[in-house]
Amino acid sequence: MSDRVLGVACLLLSAFYIFMATQIQTSFITDYLGPKFFPILIASLLAIAAIFPIIKPDPDPDWPGIGRLVEIVFAVAVMVAYTYALPVAGFVVSTAITAGILSWRLGAKPVAAATAGVSISVGIYVVFHLILQLSLARGPWGF
User: Fold this and answer.
1) Where would I find the H helices in the chain?
2) What is the pLDDT of residue 125?
3) Buried b (16+ CB within 10 A) or exposed e, 101-127
4) Sign of the CA dihedral with 71 first, then 76, 77, and 83 last
């Protein structure tokens, strides 16, 4: 039963996500796919994945304990804070902090997590901004 509830929740989330993606305003000059394509693609994949547990639920589901659920809620809170910090602190700083925190919660020691956070942030910045010339959020330091 709980698998079906999760499947229905994911299906409703995907419908909401598609609805919100259709609300994205586009200018008359845009690429062929437009900015709505990727969110709708992700929501469609979520909807397809949500159908499976509705049709064939696990007869004996193994749900995580309360500690793991708290960790999941914490990770979601960190990602929500990341979305708010991104336009203020910029991509490099906010991504380094977020990746470091998530690495720490995944089991890395604090120094290794901080190193991973900085490495991930700088690596993504180099690939997407410097090599692919994509625009990333700039912070008060210009990166």
Assistant:
1) 2-22, 37-55, 66-89, 91-105, 110-125
2) 94
3) bbbbeeebeeeebbebbbebbeebbee
4) positive
Residues 6 or more apart whose Cβ sits within 8 Å of residue 50 = 6, 7, 8, 9, 10, 11, 14
The type of residue at 126 is V
pTM over 0.90: no
SS3 65: coil
Q: How many CB atoms lie within 10 A of CB 37?
A: 12
Q: What's the average model confidence in pLDDT over 64-93? A: 93
pLDDT tens digits, residue range 3-40? 899 999 999 999 999 999 999 887 777 777 777 888 99
Q: For the chain, give the longest Cα–Cα distance.
A: 54
Q: Which long-range contacts (CB under 8 A, 24 or more apart) does 67-73 make?
A: 71/105
Contact by Cβ (8 Å): 117, 98: yes
d(CA 34, CA 111): 41
- Percentage of the chain lying above the pLDDT 90 cut: 66
pLDDT confidence of residue 61? 80
